[in-house]
Amino acid sequence: MAHDHHDHHGTAHQHGHGHGHGTDLDWNELGPLLETQAELFTPVYEQAMAWLAEEVTEPGLIVDAGSGPGVVSCLFAEAFPGARVVAVDGAAPLLERARARAARHGVAGRFGTLAGELPGVLDELDRPAGLLWASRSLHHLGDQRAGLTAFAGRLAPGGTLALLEGGLPSRFLPRDIGIGRPGLQARLDALEEEWFARMRADLPGSATETEDWPALLRAAGLGHTRTRTFLLDLPAPAAGRTRAYVAAHMSRLRDGFGDALDAGDRATLDRLLDPSDPASVHLRPDLFVLSAYTVHAGVRLV
């Protein structure tokens, strides 16, 4: 699974949703993009971990459920030096990336991976988790309520389930960018919403659910629920890797949604993606990244 993004739902953000009219996702193909994106968004994850660490003290086992290429898993290993971390994902090639990253970061000795589909694969854990982190992975399960109950069931007494879901759509450009009709990103957001709804409807056992995440955590038997939103603010003018991320993201949108846009918006996207065009995301001085990520947490009290 991946965190992407659907920006606020998750795109190729760390895991990234694949965009397009089809809803099958190829995480292997998305691996490099997911890794680059998660690295870019490291400040958000570090803020979230510091917030969790205020009440999650010395977890023995941290599980990253839907870890993708393991960027966040390795950050957990660094933030909680006494913990063993297990990255769990359905895409084995992404877990290969996770193991290689753990080795590069010097945490391989307390880092493991587990390949399989959530939530059932969690039954293979050898002990309960002190912290289970699920970043935009739950919404890839048809029955989210049952998924949360399964996640909660893998916690040790006093363990915390932290769920990254929701937030706000990312913004990269002003409303009026000087070319085309203003409001392009808002129109792309609407297409992503439609894609996300189709993706959810196509999942096996898909069930509609009011996305009141603290209420769903409580329904899963957890208490002491709390919520915090973390801001990623990379102001203009964007650095090179930020531009590369935005270009890759918008290229996926162009490939996936191009035929749903009017001719004017398609032409605008083409200019934004043309490295030789001064108005492109590669060159324009007003490119930024602004995004909000919401984390909901609950504790297994018994």
Rounded to the nearest angstrom, the radius of gyration is 19 Å
Helix content: 25-40%
Total number of β-strand segments? 8
Beta-strand content estimate: 15-25%
Overall mean pLDDT stands at 90
Oligomeric state, counting identical vs distinct chains: single chain
N- to C-terminal separation? 30 Å
Shape: globular
The tally of helices reads 9
Ranges where pLDDT stays below 50 over 5 or more residues in a row are 1-23
The helix/strand series, from N terminus to C terminus, equals HHEHEHEEHEEHHEHHE
Coarse structural class: alpha/beta
Mind describing the biggest β-sheet?
8 strands, mixed
What are the defining features of this structure?
globular; eight-stranded mixed β-sheet; 37% helix; 302 residues; disordered N terminus; alpha/beta
